Amino acid sequence: MDIELRQLRCLIAIVDEGTFTDAAIALGVSQAAVSRTLAALEQRLGVRLLRRTSRESSPTAIGLRVVAHARRVLNEVDNLIQDATSGHVELRIGHAWSALGRLTPAFQHRWQQSHPETQLHLLRINSPSAGLAEGTADLAVLRRPLPDRRFEDAIVGLETRWCAMAAADPLAASGSVRLADLSSRVLLVDRRTGTTTADLWPANARPTEQESRDIDDWLTVIATGRCVGVTAQSVVDQYPRPGIVYLPVRDAEPIVVRLVWWRYDPHPATRTVIELLTELYRT
């Protein structure tokens, strides 16, 4: 069953304008053309969409539902056309938890200064690809490998690991911790988008794990004192929280920060973003 966009536009015009005559004027066609187009749509669907009187036309019950769907379809088509013809005037960078931490404002400022023609959007999207696979981001800042051959990545920086714990925790006043200090604790992890699991510890000294689903849940549970978490420097910068203390983990390997993009369809600004982020992390 094929339905044409012009048929949907005709139906909406009749509903919005109220009569076939006014719809014809709005569409710039004849009244006969409007009647034929609507009749063809009703025939394709096998239902009556409008009640017609000598003075006006109004949707049937099924017609109301079809009109609602038609509006959504035409809106999506308009968005598709805008996106395809925009010439990449937008750059959407997804991240799961914390963007670039303390470097975020500097990155935004430098981008605006050097590329005012390309609107930058930083989007927090709690998925393994930070919106890249879903099509809601053009690039993604990730702090864990993405094992998918459709994507390519470049390392732009390193971040130290920090332990988040309740302010009332006996270790909170220590200034720093080692991995061994946490091996008897319950470690709160986000296996989809988090950066640290119990695999960071030696096999014979791993903490018990409890699972979390996103950054807000992670922080809320840690504040109760039931769990601790280990995360990247950027989270420390981005999420100061009453009741939570962050301590550097002295003997933990750093977290690798990657910029990820579609291997065969990179955004034109990809190389520029890599260079700018690498410079920011280096300095």
What does this structure look like?
The protein has three domains: 81 residues, Winged helix-like DNA-binding domain superfamily/Winged helix DNA-binding domain (Arc Repressor Mutant, subunit A, Orthogonal Bundle); 80 residues, Periplasmic binding protein-like II (D-Maltodextrin-Binding Protein, domain 2); 93 residues, 3-Layer(aba) Sandwich (D-Maltodextrin-Binding Protein, domain 2). Helices cover 37% and strands 22% of the residues. The chain has nine helices and twelve strands. The strands form four sheets. It has a five-stranded mixed beta sheet, with helices on one face. A three-stranded antiparallel beta sheet has the order 10-7-11. Strands 1-2 form a two-stranded antiparallel ribbon. Helix 1 crosses helix 3 and helix 1 crosses helix 4. The mean pLDDT is 92.
Biggest sheet: strands side by side, in what order? 4-3-5-12-6
Arithmetic mean of pLDDT: 92
Global geometry: elongated
Sheet of most strands = 5 strands, mixed
Distance between the termini: 59 Å
Secondary-structure class: alpha/beta
Strand content: 15-25%
**Count of β-strands:** 12
The tally of helices reads 9
CATH class of the largest domain: Alpha Beta
Give the proportion of residues in helices.
25-40%
CATH homologous group name of the largest domain: Periplasmic binding protein-like II
Question: How many domains make up the coordinates?
Answer: 3
Q: Unreliable runs, pLDDT <50, ≥5 residues? A: none
If classified by CATH, what would the architecture of the largest domain be? 3-Layer(aba) Sandwich
CATH topology of the largest domain: D-Maltodextrin-Binding Protein, domain 2
What letter string, H or E per element, gives the SSE order?
Answer: HHHEEHEHEEEEHEEHEHEEH
Rg, Cα atoms, Å: 27 Å
